[in-house]
Amino acid sequence: MIQGVAEISPGERSPFGVLHGRFEESAVSCRRVTKEFVSGDNRTLVLRGVDFDVSFGEMTLLVGPSGCGKTTLLSVIAGLLDPTGGNISVLGQNMDELSGADSILFRRKNLGFVFQQYNLLPALTAAENAAVPLLAAGVPRKRAVDKASAMLAELGLEQRLYALPSQLSGGQQQRVALARALVHEPRLIVCDEPTSALDHETGHAVMELLTTVAVREDRAVIVVTHDSRVFDFADRIAHMDDGRIVRTEASEKAHFPATRN
Amino acid sequence: MNFVALQMLLGDRAKYLGLIFAVAFSTFLMSHQSSIFAGIMRRTTSQIMDVPDANLWVMDRKTQYFDEVKALTDDDLYRVRGVPGIEWAVPLFKGLPRAKAFDGNFRVVIMMGVDDATLVGAPRNMVLGSADDLRRPDAVIIDRVGYEFFFPGQPYELGKPLELNDHRVNIVGIYNSSAPFQNLPVFYSRYSQAVTYVGRERNQLSFVLAKAAPGVSDREASRRIEAVTGLRAATSSEFGWQTIWYYIDHTGIPINFGITIGIALVVGTIVAGQTFYIFTLENLKQFGALKAIGVTNWRITGMILLQALMVGVIGFSIGIGMTAAFFELTKNVLDLRGFSLLWQIAAGTGGTVLLIVILASLMSIRRVLVLEPAIVFRG
Questions:
Q1: Among the four residues A132, A244, B3, B366, which has the most C-beta atoms within 10 Å?
Q2: What is the CATH class of A28-251?
Q3: Confidence label for A2 from pLDDT (cuts 50, 70 and 90)
Q4: Could B299 and A81 be called an inter-chain contact, meaning their C-beta atoms sit closer than 8 Å?
Q5: HSE (CB half, 13 Å, CA atoms) of B46?
Q6: β-pairing, A42-54 with A28-39?
Q7: Residue A38 touches partner B, C-beta closer than 8 Å
Q8: Chain B residue closest in CA terms to A190
Q9: Ranges of chain B whose pLDDT falls below 50
Q10: What ipTM was reported for this prediction?
């Protein structure tokens, strides 16, 4: 077990009340979630009562036009923004019940992030970048970098472990970001436009990796995207418009049939 | 995460070197100027500190500092000797005659006249000759600065003649003097001779040097002398500090040095603070990513402080090393003797540098603490 990263047996309840395993209900459950931004006298209601569910073992795409609230919903689910109203449950944990410090700890243990601009630290090598979540959890550097290197090798970057981000292509940087999102074995991966900075071929490759490496029986993946070319990778697509989920489609493909039945 | 913090800092070479330079420059200016200031102030007391035999200095009640004296009467010497608790008291003369070499080279010098019988107050730090030779006729002891001025390029040699206000004298000793404030050569002779080298006044006695009897503290002896004679008495240390404070209060020296040190402090803080802030701004997305990933505000504050501390330690080491190197390289230059890097100045500068880097990092810390981690989702 990696130090600082919770290892929870199936059915066991974590310090945050997270049920682990396939018996759990939705990975994410949003009910009547609202989010209003206030700036001086201006009030902007970005989320207008969102009901949204994400299941384990699935990749759920959150799609919609610019400004419809996709990224805000992702931020609220990830605990980076507090909702103005409604209820959010992530991995069985009611997010309202977490204090600020607990919310950070919850995020560190259970969430992995993939950003549109990668947000890699330019002074760290690929392996060190991928190891950051483990370092943040207090894992000794060597162990963290070793584990991150193994993850990068799984993603096909075993030749680029010591390269700086500036020495990597966009696709390689996104794979490093993907390794960083997965290295601490989180149970929810949130991705914000992971292919928008990549060409079609590279974006396709990244989505394939995301599908094969990230999507697992006990893990859920949410991807915010504009890119209709990647819709084929989704298990479920939630369409947003004007701060609401207007339609949800289920895909025919199934990564883990056992969990679907 | 300390590793990550240091890598972030080292990864931006230009800003890292800029920060180091700002702190090193600030450290050098502060420690160097403080040391020169302290050295100059110490120079004002050099003739006091060069008299290790006597603990007490007795002078006119209105005396403000060493270099400006009003002569006492010969009776004052006997009155001091008569004070209970005084083991002994001897006269000391200080004057400024003009010395001339036989090649015509001349200069005003500080002439110290020590007690004929005991030679109390005579220099101890001899390079050549002996203080006892002052007993010989027309004998003077001269410091290295004086010898090298009057006999430039010549090896140290005794028996060479000089003129002191038209009196011929012979050099019987060469010594290492503490550097005087005015950097004039310092001569020693017997009291009875010294008064003849300087124009006659009704009274000649500049100071009475005294020593408290065993069992009587210097402070108590001073109090008794003042009570009995109406003169002022001070320990060497008190008189030294009185002289230093005179120069601090009555000259522009501390203001000039204070301005330089202040500029070093302000420039160091502003340059380091601004560079550090820009460094933080450019890494804002990365800090946002770290916050999103689950790094706490405390940890990020620690990372920034570690970066600041690293810059402070390296910059301080370079700056203080430059100052130490300066004084090491100039320690054998006669005109610069007496200047050194005091540990108190090094410690004080270290504390100030710590303050600079903490101030420099405060803006950055504040900027990162208020940062919404959701910023990472804004492309």
A1: A132
A2: alpha beta
A3: very low
A4: no
A5: 24
A6: antiparallel
A7: no
A8: B377
A9: none
A10: 0.79
| CA–CA distance, B242 with B370 (Å, rounded to integer) | 53
User: Which residues in chain A have Cβ-Cβ distances shorter than 8 Å to B379?
Assistant: 116-117, 192-193, 196
Confidence at residue B200, expressed as pLDDT on a 0 to 100 scale: 67
Nearest to B181 by CA among B250, B93, B100: B250
Q: How far apart are the first and last CA of chain B?
A: 25
Looking at the DSSP assignment, which residues form a beta bridge with residue A248?
Answer: A238
Specify the DSSP class assigned to residue A210.
I
Spatial CB neighbours of A237, under 8 Å, sequence gap ≥ 6: A60, A61, A63, A231, A248, A249, A251
Buried b / exposed e over B281-313, threshold 16 CB at 10 Å, is eebebbbbbbbbbbbbbebbbbbbbbbbebbbe
> Under an 8 A CB cutoff, do A135 and B4 touch?
yes
What is the Cα–Cα distance from B133 to B139, expressed in whole angstroms?
7
The token pair at A76 is 């609220």
Q: How confident is the model at residue A98 (pLDDT cuts 50, 70, 90)?
A: confident
Q: Do B286 and A119 touch (CB under 8 A)?
A: yes
Tokens of A21: 């395993």
Please give the C-alpha separations between residue A216 and each of A93, A152, A187, B293, in angstroms, as whole numbers: 20, 18, 9, 21
- Which long-range contacts (C-beta less than 8 Å, at least 24 apart) are formed by A98-107? A98/A16, A101/B296, A102/A16, A103/A79, A104/B291, A104/B294, A104/B295, A104/B296, A105/A16, A105/B294, A106/A16, A106/A79, A107/A78, A107/A79, A107/A80, A107/B292, A107/B293, A107/B294
Token readout for A224 is 């915010």
Q: For tokens 């500190």, what's the residue?
A: B49
Which positions in chain B touch A170 (Cβ < 8 Å)?
none
Out of B3, B291, B374, the one facing A141 most closely (by C-beta) is B3
Taking 80 as the threshold, does the pLDDT of residue A213 lie above it?
Answer: no
Closest among B336, B314, B335 to B326, alpha carbons compared: B336
Do B286 and A71 count as a contact with CB atoms less than 8 A apart? no
Cβ–Cβ under 8 Å, residues B148 and B177: no
Spatial separation of the C-alpha atoms in residues B241 and B318, rounded to whole Å: 32
CB pairs under 8 A between A and B: 87
The answer to whether B232 and B60 have CB atoms below 8 angstroms apart is yes
From B296, which residue of chain A is nearest by alpha-carbon distance? A104
Contacts of B286 in chain A (CB under 8 A): 119, 121-122
- pLDDT digit string, tens, across residues B182-202: 778 999 999 999 988 886 666
Q: Does A193 touch chain B (CB under 8 A)?
A: yes
Helix (H) or strand (E) holding A171: helix A170-182
Q: What is the mean pLDDT of residues A53-64?
A: 91
Q: State the DSSP code for B53.
A: S
Question: Is A45 within 8 Å of A247 (Cβ atoms)?
Answer: no
Distance from the Cα of A182 to chain B's closest Cα (Å) equals 11
